[in-house]
Each structure stands twice: as C-alpha cells, then as structure tokens.
User: Which sequence fits this backbone?
C-alpha cells in the first residue's frame, strides 16, 4: 500500500520493545492508523508523502508513534477525533479511531493524538511493556 500511494516510510527508535496486548487488537489499531495516514496524504504531492513509525519505551510502557505528512488535523477538530461517528471524510463512518481508542484501553493502554505539528498528524499508542522472561 505504501508503494501504491507513493509514500516513503521510515522506521525509528528502539528494537526489542515488547508490549503486553492482544495481537489482533494491536494489528487492528496499527492497520487503522496507517490507513488513515495514507488517505490523508492523498492530499499532498507524492514527493512530500512520508510516514514515520517510531518505537520507544518509557515508564513501563512501549510506545508507537505514527506520524504522516498529510494536511494535519485542524485545532477545531482535534478534540473530536475519537468521538464515535465523527468524521471529516465524505465516505468515512467515524468509527475507526473510536474503536482503536477502545481497543487500546482494553489492553490497559492509551491512544492519543500527539502534539500539534506544523503539518501532518501524529498518533501515539502506549501499551504496558510485557514482563521479561
């Protein structure tokens, strides 16, 4: 999908970060965040399309930040992005981010819209680190 959308991907951060969570739920969250980013970047020229996945660990949690170079989320809409049935897309249902937030909470984690950026959007998923064997 990245190639089909002319998106350059970057992976950053720590390796070996293992979180405690449900694999199917985690896959659903990541799939939704990347899919949203790809759709958002359709509005920018191909040479300005990049997606960064950054992983780190802090305070007992593993964190994944998904950042795109799309048009971003206007300040007036930022507070509503996780509300069920709220969407800015003509074809959207407004359930993806709401579901993902619930899935993260169900794994004792959090999904949040990260600090505002000059352009693009950034979402942070935080889940408890898995116990070390």
Assistant:
């Amino acid at each position: 999908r990245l190639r089909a959308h002319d998106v350059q991907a970057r992976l950053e951060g720590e390796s070996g970060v293992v979180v405690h969570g449900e694999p199917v739920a985690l896959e659903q969250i990541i799939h939704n965040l990347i899919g949203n980013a790809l759709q958002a970047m359709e509005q920018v020229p191909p040479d300005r399309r990049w997606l960064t996945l950054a992983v780190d660990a802090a305070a007992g949690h593993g964190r994944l930040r998904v950042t795109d170079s799309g048009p971003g989320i206007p300040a007036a809409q930022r507070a509503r992005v996780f509300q069920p049935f709220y969407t800015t897309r003509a074809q959207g249902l407004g359930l993806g981010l709401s579901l993902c937030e619930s899935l993260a909470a169900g794994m004792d984690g959090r999904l949040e819209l990260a600090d505002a950026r000059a352009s693009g959007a950034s979402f942070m998923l935080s889940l408890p680190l898995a116990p070390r064997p």
Q: What stands out?
A: The first strand starts at residue 8 and ends at 13. Strands lie at 8-13, 50-58, 61-68, 110-113, 122-128.
